[in-house]
Write a structure and sequence with these properties.
Blueprint (H helix, E strand, L loop, with lengths): L1 E5 L10 H8 L3 E4 L11 H8 L3 E3 L2 H6 L3 H7 L4 E5 L7 H12 L4 E4 L4 H9 L10 E3 L10 H11 L4 E5 L1 E2 L4 E2 L2 H15 L9 E6 L7 E6 H4 L9 E5 L6 H11 L11
Parallel strand pairs: 1-4, 1-5, 2-3, 2-4, 6-7
Antiparallel strand pairs: 7-12, 8-9, 10-11, 10-12
């Protein structure tokens, strides 16, 4: 058996009681921390909580080696696989579950809080108005991906909001900041000139969702570039150009957006 357990957003205390029980009754416990940063998590405290030694696996184990280390154990024993957020948001883990089922391994899922739902709730924007989400990657060899810009443009054309995940390179301890993401998008705006992300565009920056010191701030891009969000992880939301009046009120009252956001309400 292979049980996927979501750890939640910030620390080991976000793990559900059911998730803790599944890990306690497992013969072997694995975990990965490369798909997202849980800034308040302590591996030592997590091991004490579940009463087991936890084997931390890398991206190489799951992607290059197809999770064989985990699957071999699960063929003959109960394995718990602990994952930040919700365990099946990352496609890597969906692939692992499919591989397990093909090999006759029973799988179960214990869901956890996800940045997807958290960002929607914290921003005050209505979840059914979100379009396709996108990751803003670090430039590779000077090349900047245009995909994030294009996705925001497509969503805005459909009157939808966009959730932007910011790139993480856990093995190098690199976590993209809101400022870095905005600078990438502005460079693409300068190139494509479609007025999708300008200095006057409204955006919502979220830092350390789920933590006691989480920060949620909505403002124009010009202001967010100099706003101090603190440590990672960070995400960005680009609202549609038109807002429901409740969304506008939420942005102003809950995230400190400027009053002129009311003019975007319909």
């Amino acid at each position: 058996m292979l049980v996927f357990v979501g750890l939640g957003l910030y620390s080991e205390n976000d793990m559900s009681l059911r998730g803790i029980e599944e890990a306690k009754t497992a013969d072997c416990v694995f975990a990965e921390f490369y798909t997202s940063l849980m800034a308040g998590l302590s591996l030592e405290r997590l091991e004490k909580m579940v009463g087991k030694k936890i084997v931390v696996v890398s991206r190489k184990t799951l992607e290059d080696e197809n999770g064989e280390l985990i699957l071999r154990k699960a063929e003959s024993s109960k394995v718990a696989f602990l994952v930040p957020g919700d365990p099946l948001i990352a496609t890597t883990h969906v692939d692992l579950r499919i591989r397990a089922e093909k090999r006759g391994i029973t799988t179960r899922v214990v869901h956890g809080a996800s940045i997807v739902s958290a960002a929607m709730g914290l921003s005050g924007l209505q979840n059914y108005r979100f379009g396709k989400s996108v990751t803003i990657p670090f430039p590779e060899e000077g090349l900047v991906s245009e995909t994030p810009y294009n996705v925001i443009a497509e969503n805005k054309a459909r009157d939808l909001h966009t959730l932007c995940f910011l790139d993480i390179k856990a093995e190098k301890r690199l976590y993209m900041t809101i400022k870095e993401a905005l600078e990438i998008l502005l460079s693409l705006e300068e190139k494509k000139k479609m007025h999708v992300v300008t200095l006057d565009s409204l955006a919502v920056g979220i830092a350390r969702a789920g933590a006691e010191d989480q920060v949620v701030k909505a403002d124009i891009v010009r202001a967010l570039l100099s706003f101090v969000f603190g440590g990672p992880p960070h995400v960005l939301v680009f609202p549609a150009d038109r807002l429901h009046f409740v969304e506008a009120e939420a942005l102003i009252r809950l995230t400190g957006a400027p009053e002129h956001v009311n003019k975007m309400a319909r």
